[in-house]
Structure of Enolase:
Amino acid sequence: MVSQTVASTVIQSVTARAVLDSRGNPTVETDVLLADGSLGRAAVPSGASTGAREAVELRDGDPGRWHGKGVDRAVGHVSGEIASVVVGRDADDQAGLDAALAALDGTADKSRLGANALLGVSLAAAKAAAGAHRLPLHRYLGGVDARLLPLPMMNIVNGGAHADNPLDFQEFMIAPVGAGTFAEAVRMGSEVFHTLRRDLRAAGHATGVGDEGGFAPALRTAREALDFVVRAIERTGYRPGEDIGLVMDPASSEFFRDGVYVYAGEGVRRTPSEHAAHLAELIDAYPVVSVEDPMAEDDLDGWRELTARVGDRCQLTGDDVFCTDEKLLREGIRTGVGNSVLVKVNQIGTLTEALATVATAHRAGWTVVMSHRSGETEDTTIADLAVATGCGQIKTGSLSRSDRTAKYNQLIRIEEELGESARYAGGAVLRRP
Ligand SMILES: O=C(O)[C@@H](CO)OP(=O)(O)O
Ligand SMILES: [Mg+2]
């Protein structure tokens, strides 16, 4: 008698639905079910300060529903066209699956089916396959040496497009470079967060939070925000720089207009050279270990100027300028645009392409920061991705909202699971040999 074996990792069904993200907007959640019954589920995040060259997030645009932000078309693509190509494929073949998704879409920016439709399938398939092999996602994707916990960059002051305050810079973060473990890093961050709340309140500021859960006080300048953060670190009993470093994401593309950086909150305009000089001053005056998007995505000369000026002593991470796109990153590496790349899976649309970007950065000796979006869900995939890739750094918001703490909590669990073999390298991950 001939018996036919069907791999247990064959995809049996693909479904999707609209769920809510942390801003109260709809986003795509996808389920991938395998022949052995393993279910992978992934919810797609969404940005507010998006790079111009990001893969396209498909929104319905009907102003009468969800204020135009509906994802019904993307959901329909998942359960229709995409499912018809993906069902029957082996979820173990992630690269093949992702190539098939990209080919099915057929556009360079994934605008036909939507990166939100494709990414949910890509991530859910990986999670289902991990489940079929009875492996945690970080182990399935990263193997036995995936045991480096990331340095967390915790966002404690929000501005820019993520808050309704006058701060021009979007994010002020703390990174516990002197912690001994990931769990300790989270405790240190939480302590500083609560000191900052008391300090802001004592100074008469509101302590409401922005999109990523950091406080959104009515401060005007980066110096004011950095002063509050440094004082909170000290008053908690830590040494700024040695125990906790500072990280900023000005999200500079957001206020670069006609060749000038327009600081609306501060009420000044700076030329690219003045903006770079201002950042260099802040980097020298405060224990700033990393700046993301210091210059705008269209100001490559500015990027090169700043990299030449401070790139030897500060991590300069490209977000909008690279959009997690391996080709854009290669060009940046070749031409001296920064020394680090931010990786957001939804900027490129498939897991395989995001992993290629990480590998290219690492081969060049560049650092990688795994990142959330300002619109998030309870999905914790990026926590596992940070460990799987061994990238050593993660940026996933404040210490106070479930959409952000879900990722920190997942990393606490992974650290516990790894036990003795878990490593946390503190500030050493900010450089690569
Ligand atoms: O600029 C950023 O780095 C991100 C995440 O912090 O914001 P958004 O998701 O709005 O692009
Ligand atoms: Mg950014």
